[in-house]
Amino acid sequence: MPAPKEFPSWFLWLLDRGPLALIAIFVTPVLILLLLGLLLDARFANLDHQQEFRLPRSYNPPDADHYPVTDDFDGMDSQWVYVPSYSHVYYEGGSPFLLETTLSIRNIDPNRPIAIETVDYFDTNGKHIKAFLKKTIELKPLQTVEFLVERRHSSGGSGANFLVEWVGSASVDPPLIEAIMVGTAGANAISLSRSGVSISTPTSSPNNSDGS
C-alpha cells in the first residue's frame, strides 16, 4: 500500500482553524492594497491643493502699458465718480488712527470694455495730491484695476477723496468703484469701504486746484 500523503504543517494549521482563516489569508492583502490606494489618493489630492494655493503677490502700481486702449471710445460721453476715502479716522478723544487705502475700479460689464481717463486724489481741503494716471487705460469686461495710498501717506486726511473719470458706450454697465480702508495699531484693527457716487462733469480740470 502506498504511504499516506503528508500535508504541509501550514495547510494543516489552516484546516484546523476553518474557512475563516482561508478568507483572512486572501482578503487581507486586498484590504492592504485598498488602504495604500486611499493613502496615495489623499497625498495626491493634498499635492494638487498645494499647487492650486498661491499667496497673493504684493501690490505693484498698475502699468498703463498692460491696459492698452484697443477699442474706439471717441464720441462717447465721460462720466465722473466721487469716491470718499480716509487716510485716518479719529478715536480715543481725537487721536488719528492711520489707514491704508485701496481704490478698486471694476468693470462689471461682462460684454463691453470701458476706458479710465482720470484717477485723481484730493485731501480734506480739496487740494489735489496725486494723479494716478498719465494716460488713458482700458478695462476689458470684468477686469479690475487698483490704486494704493499707503498708510504713511497721511496727507489726505479724514476727508480725502478720489475723482475717477471713465468712458463707455451708452449701454455699458457702470463700473463698481470703491475705496477700501484698513489699519492696525497694536491689538486694534479697523476696516471699512465706501462706494463712489456719480457727479456732474467738472467745469475745469480738478487737478488745477494745486496749480499743477
UniProtKB/TrEMBL annotation:
InterPro entries: DUF3124
Keywords carried by this UniProt record: Membrane, Transmembrane, Transmembrane helix
Residue intervals passing through the bilayer: 20-40
Identification of the protein by name: DUF3124 domain-containing protein
Taxonomic source organism: Thalassoglobus neptunius
